[in-house]
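Feature request disguised as a bug report, sorry. It would help if multi-protein outputs had a clear separator. Right now it looks like this:
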Amino acid sequence: MASRRRARRHALQILFQLDLTPQPAEQAIRAFYESLSSEPGGAAEEPDPLVTELVCGVQTRRQEIDELIARHAHNWRLERMPAVDRNVMRLAVFEMIALGSPPAVAINEALELARRFSGEQAVPFVNGVLDAIRQELEATGALAAAKRGARSRSRRTA
């Protein structure tokens, strides 16, 4: 079983690819895992279910997520943001609104991804936008609803 951090990293890479070359999410996931096994010493790896959930979930709710990001990224149009930063934020917002991840965890993981794939200069921007989104979600009760939904999903799968 892959770690959640690794799943987020893989999901970010796939989302980045989808931004550059639009295609069905399932096709992009399959191509990503095939590329891992084609590297020297790479063994065929089955797609991580969390990666699939993250990528497909972000793609399904992309309009809603992008509206949240655009509303809080003052002076930045979504299409003008670096693709890595945009997809790091999409991933974190999806985790907060759909998976019921604690905002502190989702934001911290997003900052680590931004630091690794975009650079230190992206961290304050990503942090500011995600914190503003967190505040809106808390004020509207969307975080509580996401937590309830995540609990009911985990009971059904147990």
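(second protein starts here, but nothing in the output says so)
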Amino acid sequence: MAPSVSGSVVGRGTIALVSGPGVSVGSGASEDGAAGPSSLDLSGAEELAETFRVLADPGRVRVILALLEAGEMHVGGLATAAGLSETACSHALRLLRQGRVVKRRKVGRSALYSLDDEHVSGLLGLAREHIDHARAGH
């Protein structure tokens, strides 16, 4: 069953959310057209788009996948695992930290990186499911 839009543009500057099987992101507006508690305002849409922008680079995705597998890594190990130079990996980590996808823990003079929380894994898993579903012709 395909996701469905529970509303369209609601009021001024509020967008209703999409819902479907396994997706619990909200129900949009109330019957009187007022934005419901789960509606996404335009600034929320900007934040959501920024999260997808941060994830929209193959090198950064490889860094995330390496962290999913290892849990916590130094820049050098991450660079090797992701097939990036240390400079490119550091840049990717900076962007991922700014996007609250990755966090850093200082240990003496070095830093260890890990995923910020379990939502990152869920986002990648859902994207993978979507790709597999689309490839199957659904």
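Even a blank line would do. Unrelated, but nice: The domain at 57-120 is CATH 1.10.10.10 (Arc Repressor Mutant, subunit A).
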